[in-house]
Write a structure and sequence with these properties.
This protein is of the alpha+beta class. The chain is built from 9 helices and 15 strands.
Amino acid sequence: MPIQTYALHPGFAAEASYRDLSERLDDTVIAAIGAALKTYPVLVFRDQHLTDAQLRDFALRFGPLEIGRPAARPGRRRLAIPQIGDVSNLDEDGKVRALTDKRRLDSLGNRLWHTDASYMPVPVVFGFLHAVTLPPPSPFGNGETEFADMRAAYDALPQATRDAIDPLVAEHDIFWSRAQIGFTDFEPGDREKYPPSPQRLVRRHPVTGRKNLYLSAHASHIVGWPVADGRLLLLDLTSHATQPGFVYSHDWRVGDLLIWDNRCTMHRGRPHDEMQPRDLRRATMLDTASTLDEAA
């Protein structure tokens, strides 16, 4: 069955048709999904009901998977498979976490505009996020996930600005992003385990050849610039890149599976009813090299 796409945000986000991604898919289907992601770096598959093992196995068809920061910590986890990230407000026993829970407070950093794992020396490529349980609507938001098109944002900059920022490198730091929301209660040894990483400010997509901004809440400053000047530039670029015209907001339904390309998008979660369970499961594909090794 071919993959058909229906644009949700022209040239950026689309709903993709496929009846059941839990099946063992042949190579032509995987290639078709990869081809669709070239045009639409945010793809939505509806009515998918995957076990964690099926989600892992599907994501593995695209490349090796990350074991994220929460899963790398010692101790008991709610989810058994380390390559499946627990994007929920649930504790190890499946109970809703208290508002003061340390892991919940850490995860609130995901409400800042960011690119996954850009604080790692080799960041990530595709994210796969599957909705298992969703809370009812709340006055503060319904837990939408917003995505920003960093290709279109780069294209919309004046040529002189593009020329000026093309060679710049930003330092990305998980401790900087979390400090912005007041979270500093990291585990002992985390600072040594996750040192800052330099990343290109402008990337050329290795598949499409198209240039895009590479921004994230993790980006703390511009290498070689006074810290204050670099932070102001990053704030200005982030404000530019997250204008409504560049953003697709996804309203979740149970069974949705989203795939997005972290190399040319930013995203953020929105508020939801924290007193009700919200359970999403994520797999993330690893890249193979630093952004500094990419063609300019």
